[in-house]
Amino acid sequence: MENDAIETTRRQTVASGCFCCCHLREPFGEAEEEEEQQQLGIFCCEARIHADPLLEVDQFDRLPDSLVLVILNNVEDVRSLGRCSAVSKRFYGLVPLVHDVYVKIDRVVTVDGDAEDMLNLSAPKPRNILSHFLKMMLFTIIKPFHGMRGPNGAGRPLFPQLAQHSPAQVLHNFTHIRSLRIELPSGDVGTEDGVLLKWRAEYGSTLQNCVILGGTQVDRKPVGAEHELYSEDNGSMPESFYTNGGLKLRVVWTISSLIAASTRHYLLRSIIKDHPTLTSLVLTDADGQGTLSMGAEQLKEFRENQLSASACSNRTQVPACNMKLKYAPYLELPGGIALQGATLVAIKPSTSNGTHTSRKESDAFISGAFDGPFKFAVKALMKRRTYLLEMNGF
């Protein structure tokens, strides 16, 4: 009877979940005692698995703000950052503090376009993107922000400035930007199919350096094919270059690229003014045609000097320049690419305007202006004969 009472007590204790090692028990033998301890251990493990939900903690909240900012800086994309802002009050407060921001402009519409025009993807694109860039709406940037509200539930738009759809206002809420990259949907200079035109420019308050790489035809070189047309090329421009419009075409490339660069530079003035923390600014396009870059010293010089605007359009005045032109009728590039009518134009202002760059620095800028096979083309052209040209400001 005593044994039955003890066993009943043990079972009740186990069933009730009170796994105390001090409950009543009969002094079993070693085998029974070991079996009992194993059973109790199993129940204890099961009890630990089923934790109280009220005691669970969001481990993400344990991350310091500095680490979250590192993650957000790697996000970069302004639309993705906008979505992050809608996640929580914490993100809403941290997103404006990011240092690295990337703005991709997928489509532009004119200021006069209404809401229906903004949604009409088949609407024609303005022919002169060059002179209208600042007046264009950034619908694809703004779209992810529509409908987003602040986490306080007051119905206030997350970024109220976005209603104006201008690039400067898209970035207005970001107060600590150091590195900014903006990508336009296409290049500014129209070219025929197969024609190569790429440029890169450095600006302070005015043009400091510009390099242009062009070619009349880019195509694939057949495997094993040999090119004999220019086998006797001695590095000089052929006489036909002056008579068949070759030189005139290069002048058009140069002027068009400088206008594109000076227009982009002029249209960045409000962004530079609103973001004194900027130390790096790059404006490029999806076609990879042109790139304008400004470093910390150049941005500082831009802020300290008055911008010289052109009288005829919304762009920066192009100063009088000295140009070095190099030409090769044919170049074979890595990857089986052939470039005909290869031309390299290096441009610097005639006067230093308080800035001075050594020849070594200029050569480094030119050789590092482009990537891939075009980097090889630049290095090959730099070895060619140099032709000097001068151009008045415009």
Number of strands: 10
What low-confidence regions span 5 or more consecutive residues with pLDDT below 50?
Answer: 13-27, 42-47, 109-164
Structural class: alpha/beta
Reported for the largest beta sheet, the result is: 10 strands, mixed
Span between termini = 114 Å
SS field, number of helical segments: 15
Tally of structural domains: 3
Order of helices and strands: HHHHHEHHHHEEEEHHHEEHEEHHE
The radius of gyration is 34 Å
What does the average pLDDT come to? 76
Shape, per Cα inertia axes: globular
Helix-residue proportion:
25-40%
* Strand residue percentage: 15-25%
Characteristic key phrases:
394 residues, alpha/beta, 3 domains, 10-stranded mixed β-sheet, globular
Topology:
Layout: H1 2-15, H2 30-49, H3 65-75, H4 78-85, H5 89-94, E1 100-104, H6 115-119, H7 129-132, H8 139-142, H9 167-170, E2 179-184, E3 196-203, E4 207-215, E5 217-220, H10 240-243, H11 246-267, H12 269-274, E6 280-285, E7 290-294, H13 296-304, E8 321-333, E9 337-349, H14 359-367, H15 373-382, E10 387-391
Parallel strand pairs: 1-2, 2-6, 3-7
Antiparallel strand pairs: 3-4, 4-9, 5-9, 6-7, 8-9, 8-10
Structure at a glance:
It comes from Oryza brachyantha. This protein is α/β, with parallel strands linked by helices.
Question: How would you describe what is shown here?
Answer:
With 394 residues, the chain is of the alpha/beta class. The protein has three domains: 2-55, no CATH class; 61-184, no CATH class; 196-277 and 312-391, no CATH class. The chain has helices at residues 2-15, 30-49, 65-75, 78-85, 89-94, 115-119, 129-132, 139-142, 167-170, 240-243, 246-267, 269-274, 296-304, 359-367, 373-382, and strands spanning 100-104, 179-184, 196-203, 207-215, 217-220, 280-285, 290-294, 321-333, 337-349, 387-391. Strands 1, 2, 3, 4, 5, 6, 7, 8, 9 and 10 form a ten-stranded mixed beta sheet that branches. Strand 8 and strand 9 form a beta hairpin. The radius of gyration is 34 Å and the shape is globular. It comes from Oryza brachyantha (malo sina). Residues 60-95 form the F-box domain. InterPro entries: AUF1-like (IPR044809), F-box-like_dom_sf (IPR036047), F-box_dom (IPR001810). This is F-box domain-containing protein. It holds the Pfam family F-box-like.
